[in-house]
Amino acid sequence: MLKYLILTSLLICSTSFAQVKRPTTPMDLELVTVMISDRAKESGGSGVILRSGELGSHILTNAHVCNGLESGGIVTTSQGEHLVERFKMSKMHDICLVHVIANLKYQTIVADAPAKFGQKLRVSGHPYLLPANTVEGYASKNKDVTLMIGVEKCNEEDLEKRAMYCFFLGGIPVVKTYSAQTTSLVVAPGNSGSAVFDDSGKIVGLVFAGIGRSLSPGYIVPGQYLKVFLQKEVGTLKWINANSAKSVRPTSETIKVNPTTLYKLRLRDVAFPTVLAPKYEKISRQIENCKMDTERCNL
Q1: SS3 letters for 148-213?
Q2: Domains of the chain and any CATH numbers
Q3: Report field, pTM of the whole predicted structure over 0.90
Q4: pLDDT tens digit string along 22-76?
């Protein structure tokens, strides 16, 4: 109970000098939208300022975006750049809370209820890590989506029994199923972690997946998961220092092993998860049965 009270007190103190923002215009949306990247700015995603104050600011984004911060990260806002200090990653969904030691001056509001079918939505983010961009669309129904969220290093047993995974992917695929709300919002890699707003300027979800590696309809973390994360789960999680975090995401060297195979397996890149194609299991069997002669793998 004490740690919940301390966390709540810190959030209250840190927001005492922040301006509450319910963004309804592209200009308003840009003020609360941030880009989160690695130090080299070669990979990353988007986020939204949740709370700000003299003690620092909290930003909502995706857990898979935070996976790219194991060597530190940079938060870029309309005001400048700030180093990522630490973060907390949800265990129930693709959500992460990032902390920076800077007063980003704004705070936003998470809606009490998720978006309804047919409700008009706006998403603000950094597709392809370009300057902030706003897109409008509509909410649709929920569905479960299965994502390949990364790869784990092969051990000796894997090298014997699942050698083709180790050869093609550099490790064993990590697959997870999430509940998602489908939308007509057009998103792209880099939009991961982008906040989805309703007409009143409240956050009703976060973009976390798309189809393929180009423009596609967006899958969003339903708003109810954001509420549970902020009201209950976040108090049970430990802060991870940005410079000491560990990740199971594929490294750039892994991606270079065989780009064609990775694409056909729908392996998400470091900035954007991709919904697995229905043929995933068939492709997996092909890899298991595949000979070392890659020309006969038919992948």
Answers
A1: EEEEECCCHHHHHHCHHHHHHHCCEEEEEEEEEEEEEEEECCCCCCCEEECCCCCEEEEEEEECCC
A2: 2-108+235-241 (2.40.10.10), 120-221+247-291 (2.40.10.10)
A3: no
A4: 888 889 999 999 999 988 888 889 999 999 999 999 999 999 999 888 788 999 9
